[in-house]
Amino acid sequence: MIDPKHFRTVLGAYPTGVCVITSVDAAGLRTGLVVGSFTSISLDPPLVGFFPDKRSGSWPRIAATGRFCVNVLGADQLDLCRRFASRADDKFAELAHGHSPAGLPLLDNALAWIDCRIERVEDIGDHWLVVGAVEALDSRAGGTPLLFFRGQYHDAVEIAQGV
């Protein structure tokens, strides 16, 4: 039997990027959640994926829209990470943001964004595997990513320097 705490500690040695997945429903209700489990799946066709926790209150609202936008956070966006990791009812309260080509919330100064249509959702243990068909994407020049490593948030430069 694998001890869950030990499992988390060992896998914490692998740094992950931090993204906010956003969407908006037909009534204009904006939703977002933080993931550290975002990945590229395929170039042809262009597919990406992420793994929301089955206990997430935000994921069902995003799933119902059939679309999502991945916002890759920069090291200077820890405040946004904390906002979207919270259980607040309105994570967008008083937050200015733009819109992706699909009209989804695009967080200001994200390092990159990826507009997707939900291709499929698979039941995987205590999470869902969400596969998105990429419809549009872009990135900005400069900036370093916000990383999650050994249970804490870091700048990629900090990790490289052994901080």
Model description:
This protein has 163 residues and is α+β, with helices and mostly antiparallel strands. It has a single domain, classed as Electron Transport, Fmn-binding Protein, Chain A (Pnp Oxidase, Chain A, Roll). The chain has helices at residues 4-11, 59-65, 78-85, 156-160, and strands at residues 16-17, 19-24, 30-35, 39-42, 47-50, 67-72, 98-99, 105-106, 112-124, 127-139, 146-149, 152-155. It has a seven-stranded antiparallel β-sheet, with helices on both faces. Strands 1-11-12 form a three-stranded antiparallel β-sheet. It has a two-stranded antiparallel sheet with strand order 7-8. The longest helix has 8 residues, at 4-11. The radius of gyration is 16 Å and the shape is globular. The N and C termini lie far apart (33 Å).
Compile the SSE list and pairings.
Elements: H1 4-11, E1 16-17, E2 19-24, E3 30-35, E4 39-42, E5 47-50, H2 59-65, E6 67-72, H3 78-85, E7 98-99, E8 105-106, E9 112-124, E10 127-139, E11 146-149, E12 152-155, H4 156-160
Antiparallel strand pairs: 1-11, 2-3, 2-6, 4-5, 5-10, 6-9, 7-8, 9-10, 11-12
Organism: Novosphingobium pokkalii
Domain Flavin reductase like: 11-155
Pfam families: Flavin_Reduct
Core attributes:
12 strands; 163 residues; three-stranded antiparallel beta sheet; Pnp Oxidase, Chain A; 4 helices; single chain; alpha+beta
Kindly, what is the distance between the CA atoms of the first and last residues, rounded to a whole number of angstroms?
33 Å
Share in β-strands: 35-45%
What's the average pLDDT?
Answer: 93
The CATH superfamily is Electron Transport, Fmn-binding Protein, Chain A
Q: What is the gyration radius calculated from CA atoms?
A: 16 Å
The number of distinct structural domains comes to: 1
CATH architecture: Roll
How can the largest sheet be summarized?
Answer: 7 strands, antiparallel
Q: Helix share of residues? A: 10-25%
The strands making up the biggest β-sheet line up spatially as 3-2-6-9-10-5-4
Write the CATH fold name: Pnp Oxidase, Chain A
List segments where confidence is low: pLDDT < 50 over at least 5 consecutive residues.
Answer: none
How do the helices and strands follow one another from N- to C-terminus?
A: HEEEEEHEHEEEEEEH
EC number: 1.-.-.-
Protein name: Flavin reductase family protein
Keywords: Oxidoreductase
GO molecular function: oxidoreductase activity
